[in-house]
Amino acid sequence: MMRNLRQSQLRIAAALLCAALSGQAAAQAPASAPAVKGFVPPASSSANVIDSIAVVVNDEVITKNELNQRVADIKRSMQQQNAPMPDEADLQRQVLEHLIVERAQLQMAKEYGLKIDDTRLDRTIARIAEGQKMSVQELRNQLEKEGMSFAAFREQIRNEVVMQQLRQHEVDDKIQVSDAEVDTFLAAEKAAAADAVELNIAQIMVRIPDNATTEQIAARKARADEIMRQLRTGADFGKIAATYSDASDALKGGEVGWRDPRRLPPVFADALLKLKPGQVTQPIKSSTGFHILKLVDKRSLAQDDQKAVVEQTHARHILIKTSPTVTVDEAKKKILELKARLDNKSATFEELARQYSNDGSAAKGGDLGWLAPGDTVPEFETAMKTLKPGEVSEPVQTVYGVHLIQVVERKQDDQTLQRQRAAARQALFERKQAEAAEDWARQLRDRAYVEFRLDDK
């Protein structure tokens, strides 16, 4: 349970605090803000006023006020980042498309019953503030100074996390990486180690509709060719991306950022590795559309041949969960009673864990097995590190409740091979995820009933 929470926290932090990955970007609304890097300021509360309808998405509407607010937010962000600005009509079209995709995702998430409670939302915002080297109050003050409602900001972050849960359910959980794929990847990586590089890339993507006809594909190809013609005649890549690209990094000038080519689809990596900085590829067809990629820059990757030796801890615990009916003080009192029984040797740790622990490890006498750094939540790990083998902690409070921890033994473990395989598996996962996320977002958008009413009087 603690391992899963830790992994979930890392995924959320990565999704909210970093610039969107190219594969994930197609499933997200664009994100940037002057005060909080990586975020778009949410629409103001005035968007809740029914003024007039911009577009109907299934059984919900996006109002013109929502659209105008988001356009204004994006314009301010692009101006502060000196990003190339598309024409007003193109900008509005791009922003509206992102709002449609976002609304369709939130509707699906609602159907699945996915939601985030206030406690988890508070923890997420606290991590955002920490990533900005601010307190939550300082973050709030900065947002409000920039004219952003903190309440609306909270709801935007709530939506981001819910959409991430949905993408995990619909995309991530269905991706499989076999041991044979890992073996092949590692062999290729070893052969290419001397030439390892990292690529700074940008993209323009012309989306192909789901179940597109031959005529539709030809029309999309013609659009990509026209974009290439403009690029060849000296048009600015960033402005063309912001104007024409169907990827949600469009309003960042198509900027994807630094990527390990091994984590890109092979057809993209092969084309990019043939370029010099500043050059662009011919349109590359994928299952989601035609991609024009620009190699912005290239750099060598330092090779790390050091062994990964980590200290592992074999530990047990007893957990008394807190709840609306069990307060923290009550849980601590119970843990102290159990510790007293251990101290006077009236029971063993395993016996008390089996009888009292509110955790899945109770049946095993509280045994958590061998734990590596990062496997548990920070409060648990910090307390565990201070214990000697055989020693029992004082009450330790975490998000789960209150724990009593016992360290059984420790060992130094060479995890070089395991880490190499884990890194390879993650690289292959990201490669598959990029295309799968784009494909899923395209299908979701194409399945949605969308009625535009911008021209209605």
Helix and strand arrangement:
Blueprint: H1 2-17, H2 22-25, E1 53-57, E2 60-63, H3 64-80, H4 88-112, H5 118-131, H6 136-145, H7 150-170, H8 179-191, E3 197-207, H9 214-232, H10 237-244, E4 255-259, H11 266-272, E5 284-285, E6 289-300, E7 309-321, H12 328-343, H13 349-356, E8 367-371, H14 378-385, E9 396-397, E10 401-414, H15 416-447, E11 450-452
Antiparallel strand pairs: 1-2, 1-11, 3-4, 3-6, 5-6, 7-8, 7-10, 9-10
Helix pairs in contact: 1-5, 3-4, 4-7, 8-15
Structure characterization notes:
The protein is of the alpha+beta class and 457 residues long. The protein has helices spanning 2-17, 22-25, 64-80, 88-112, 118-131, 136-145, 150-170, 179-191, 214-232, 237-244, 266-272, 328-343, 349-356, 378-385, 416-447, and strands at 53-57, 60-63, 197-207, 255-259, 284-285, 289-300, 309-321, 367-371, 396-397, 401-414, 450-452. The chain is globular, with a radius of gyration of 25 Å.
